[in-house]
Records
---
Amino acid sequence: MIPVYRKAVTGILAATFALAVTGSAVAPALAADPGVTDTEIVLGGTHPYSGPASAYGNIGKGIGAYFSYVNDRGGVNGRKIKYIDKDDGYSPPQAVQIVHQLVEQDKVFAIFDTLGTAVNTAIRPYLNQNGVPHMFVATGASTWGKDYQKFPWTIGWQPDYQAEAALYAQDILQNHPKAKIGVLYQNDDYGEDYNAGLKRGLGKHQEMIVKMASYETTDPNVSSQVSTLKAAGCDTFMIFATPKFAIQSMVAAAQQSWHPTTYLNNVSAAVPFMNAASKAGGPAAVAGVISTIYLKDPANHARYAGDAGMKFYNEIMAKYLPTADKDDGNYLYGVSIGYTMVDVLKRAGKDLTRKKVMDIATNLVEKDNPLAYPGVVIRTSPTFRYPITQMITARWLATDWSPTGLLVDTRSMTMAENK
Amino acid sequence: MHDLAQQIVSGLATGSIFASMALALVLIYRSMGVINFAQGELAMFSTYVAWQLVQMGVPMWGAFFITIVVAFAGGVLLERLVIRPVERAPQLTLVIVTLGLFTAINGLAGWFWGYVVKPFPTPFPTTPLQIGGVAFSAQDVGVIVVSLVTLGLISLFFQKTKLGLAMRAAALYPDQSRVLGIRVGWMLALGWGLASVVGAISGIMIAPVVFLDPNMMQSVIVYAFAAAVLGGIESPIGAVVGGLILGVVLNLLGTYVEAIGNELRLAAALAIIVAVLVIKPSGLFGRATVQRV
């Protein structure tokens, strides 16, 4: 970003701080919870429709499409869902401001699927002070599951980054016990979460990590970092990056004739990204890369040709987002998480309160999410709030992800860690 | 030693990205005396035009030349429609207008083409090259060569043609030029057209490396500012040399200076801007600054 903006951002930050102080004086909802009438449930959300993470804006559109689908079939227990979804530009101060508006002016019943670790960290205290459900946030930071006692109104959804990285560590210990690991990570909470998980997974074998190189989201490319890891003699490459930098790093490795065993974090492993890397760096850049899967992949037409869930997704996309590129996994993520939200609202019944919805969300066993990877169950308890803990490692074979081994549940591992 | 050579080579490759963008910044500065904050976004938009052409089946180099024509027309049009009305306004107004353009063009590109990162075909071969164990790609060499050729053509244009001379005159002495029969307004429009062309070339060269998305230039443009200031904001040669130096220096600082590391790369670039402005405001290749009156 251009430095001129920094000042503006600080200004907004100061303004929102002032708002936050006055805003917290607003009394929590009394008897009837806001946002629910006989005919309507109002939900609020924010997504980055502009700014550096705007590719994820399609998640919001996927949710919108699914809610339209549900509404056209009579809604949830007779009520239509009204989803007020706004652009936060991936900026925490902006998100804080919008969430205040959603809660105080639009009187939403719950905040659903706000995206990004920084954004959700910024809005979490306010929502918890006011007892507004802060549900199924679109980020895999471990804090959503870990800090539930302090923030009981907040819950995540996707697998947490630490568990994912720990899974890679297990794979390394099993299949490459002599690996010399080089890590490329984004220098913020997101990257640090992965690093923590990797170290935890390696346990007493942490010395296997030979070199760690960080990048900033302001860097134009990461070829220098890749050379550093190569020069350090690493033969195993962990990529804990956002999509653009992940693509760049795979291409850079190929161009420097470095062919390590590569592990790529799930967030950056969508098929279009792999194709992009393959096109730019040649097929060798992506051959055999290892990642994880927990949702179905809409770009993998062959694997899901006869799949009922994928058919359901394609129908929704064809009807409600006909011009969108349905191969983009972000839409599928949106439909899938929208399904969980509607599921929870349905189970909460006709007599809807915020507290009841949180109770359902934290006592959930959802086995039929049509877009979760086959076998993945979305499961929570009041003391274990990591809805998706199952993943399967997969290897990139020419044109798609091919699952290797079995579905692994990181639940017990995360439980042990949190004790 | 081998690692050092690799870092220098990859620094040159990154530096050539900064250089090509800095060149476009310098061109606008020379013709109007302002920094165009929308320069990167214009380049990004042109790159999308090229991408669209390739998608429609136009061969890569064909798309390249069509895009250049489109970019030139677009640059001229933008100057006529948006900049012209505020041409005589204070510099700050111009800067704000270019900032507005920045946001508008970014949003427009997102609206047309979406925000998903797209691969952009490289016009060069993709097989990695090696000399003495140092790896680089044809793409890296290509970007440097194309930047140098662009620089050469621009220098020729400004030094050897009547039109180039008229453009320089219009920028430096608008009133006198008018008396001599130079159509100053059109010279400015031409300047925008040219800068837009250089930006388009730069975008097409950069996109295979940083990948195409509406925000692709935002990480590049700050470094391009630094490169332009380092080389001398008035000097096309300075922009190219400044870009290459910046690329190499940042890589070396990031790799070998523990205190800076990869974390403070951007800060180091900004420190270079400040240092140059304090110690030698005209940059490495600039002459004493000329104020636009």
---
Amino acid sequence: MINTIPINYYIFLSAVLFIIGAVGVMARRNAIIIFMCIELMLNAVNLLLVSFSTLHNDPSGQVFVFFIMAVAAAEVAVGLAILSVAYRNIKSVDIDLLSKLKN
Amino acid sequence: MLGYSITQWLFGILSFLAIMFALMVVFTRNPVNSVLYLVMTFFCIAGHYLLLNAQFLAVVHIVVYAGAIMVLFLFVIMLMNLNEETEQQKTLVTKMIAGLIGGVLLAVMVGTLKGAEQMQLAQGGASQIGMVKVLGVVLFKDFLFPFEIASVLLLGAMVGAIMLGKKEIKS
């Protein structure tokens, strides 16, 4: 028995997840939530890479996903460090208050 | 079962759950709940990886994202003591514009991809490309240099995070 799902379904699922992330970036004020929405967008791309890797039977796509995970981990570490420094200075992670970057 | 195979059922359920949890991440007011919903989204995506025969990636995804990155988020949120009361909301106009832009983006993507060629993904077969052995060979043969660069990147990120995080020494 061969179970098949069209690649288009995965493309649409990834598109929807990506757009939810993009709307989250636009609609929220908490910088940490915005970071999480960026993670969501990265994961939508990862899902698409893995599904195309399965479609073409090529492991390179999955290796790309590893690299995206490594870069995401680095980004989160530095980003949260910057946010915690900002929080120490202005006692908030509200991006509307952070918009000037200089006190 | 109603003309659908088990794989298709699983795909539908996991997709529905992933989208619902992703929406909850954006719409929940409490940041801690937001993190927990994002963890659930990641579990659904890991299920998708399993369906796609990417077993190793599914495990790594859970370990790295749910285990490491989201715990980091949770720590930072709890350190800052963020909750519903401290949460500032954008104005309704901004939210509606954001939703509108998202809807337009979705319409453009669906319109573009609607006419794309239908290709079937062969799943549940004896595909071996998701296994550690195959991925390891590819990673250390074709992608050795990017792999080393990634290690330098992680080292740089670690040093940067520590430098940013430590208290300034008064001279």
